[in-house]
Design brief:
The chain has 344 residues and is α/β, with parallel strands linked by helices. It folds into 2 domains: 187 residues, Periplasmic binding protein-like II (D-Maltodextrin-Binding Protein, domain 2, 3-Layer(aba) Sandwich); 146 residues, D-Maltodextrin-Binding Protein, domain 2. The protein is built from 14 helices and 10 strands. Strands 1, 2, 3, 4, 5, 6, 7, 8, 9 and 10 form a 10-stranded mixed sheet that branches. Helix 7 links the parallel strand 5 and strand 6.
């Protein structure tokens, strides 16, 4: 199955329709704050929903466009059942820091969140058109930059990376464009943005589309930046991030200005939920997902990375009671911090 066929087949699901199975019955309606279908995480959102609905009668309504930081808050309040998050988001929420600094009960809300599964999202791509003359983060002075939606964790990471690499301060030394993940790609293609940053597996479909507009330049995080204290403190010393080597020429040597591999940030995401979700529902979702894992992997080449060996890697909040039960039955030796207080 091609990605195009995949998106067409589940278009109704993504925008609110449902696909129901029959193996596990029950009137269960779930809200899933996901990403757009062309995004790496969006593909997982579709695949996860399909797998669950194939083996259950659970109905999942998937919506897109909301920042993951907001989705986590909404789930903690009980208005969203499933959402995407990252270890960095959880850490900020637990401490009431960064984008949660003004939310007084952020730590309390954090205690209501649980996780289901972790997976590698890919690496951060920071991209400009070669014709702009931008070859490094230091060239972004007075430019217009998009590194994620306002208030999102990707935006904080992007601003921290640019500052560590160049000394340029977000909103002061360059303009931070206010788009979401859906509206930003066409804005970049139309040259409204000088630099676009996003986490994704490669080769990413949207980046391939941008090549219609000219040759691309991918930003390298220099060795000096990697070794700087500001980078270590603000960027890499956060759970769920790693330093990776990435070769932009995977997009074709004629399409990129880079001549050799570059340093980038690797990142992990997870599908989260909350303590209000019944244990049996969480358990059945995990069982359905892993029963259909080969179908999930066939939707996109990069999804072959998703396996039981990485299912709980990089998680820094407890598992949902149902997921915890599933992984224990599967023989996992789970660390103490992943056991939810409500688990039997």
């Amino acid at each position: 199955m091609t990605l195009k066929q995949f998106y067409t087949a589940v278009a109704g699901t993504v925008f609110g329709a449902t696909l129901c199975g029959s193996a596990i019955a029950g009137d269960v309606y779930l809200k899933f704050d996901s990403y757009q279908p062309t995004a790496t995480a969006g593909q997982i959102g579709i695949a996860f929903s399909q797998a669950v609905q194939k083996d259950t009668d659970y109905q999942i309504q998937v919506s897109t466009g909301k920042a993951a930081t907001k989705a986590a808050l909404d789930s903690a309040k009980g208005t969203v059942d499933l959402y995407f998050s990252s270890p960095g988001i959880y850490l900020a929420m637990e401490k009431g820091a960064a984008m949660y600094k003004k939310i007084k009960n952020a730590p309390e809300l954090h205690s209501k969140l649980r996780t289901l599964i972790s997976f590698p999202l890919g690496v951060y791509h920071y991209v400009s058109y070669e014709s702009t003359g931008i070859k490094s983060f230091s060239d972004l002075k007075s430019k217009t930059v998009f590194v994620g939606p306002p208030g999102g964790i990707a935006t904080k990471i992007g601003c921290d990376v640019i500052r560590a690499a160049s000394g340029l301060v977000c909103k002061k030394d360059y303009k931070l464009a206010k788009f979401d993940w859906t509206s930003a790609p066409p804005a970049f293609l139309d040259r409204q943005l000088d630099l676009y940053g996003l986490p994704t597996n490669a080769p990413a479909p949207r980046i391939k589309e941008w090549m219609r507009g000219g040759k691309l330049q991918f930003m390298d995080i220099s060795d000096a930046t990697l070794n700087s204290e500001i980078f270590k403190k603000n960027v890499i010393n956060v759970p769920g991030r790693s330093i990776e080597r990435f070769d932009p020429r995977v997009y074709g040597e004629d399409n990129v200005a880079n001549k050799e591999p570059i340093n980038v940030i690797g990142v992990w995401l997870s599908i989260g939920t909350n303590v209000m979700l019944p244990e049996e529902v969480g358990y059945n979702m995990m069982k359905a997902f892993w029963n259909n894992i080969e179908t999930v992997r066939n939707t996109a080449f990069w999804m072959k990375q998703i396996n039981m060996k990485v299912a709980t890697r990089e998680l820094n909040v407890p598992l949902h009671a149902g997921a915890y039960r599933f992984y224990k039955e599967a023989g996992f030796d789970l660390p103490a911090h992943l056991k939810p207080p409500e688990a039997k």
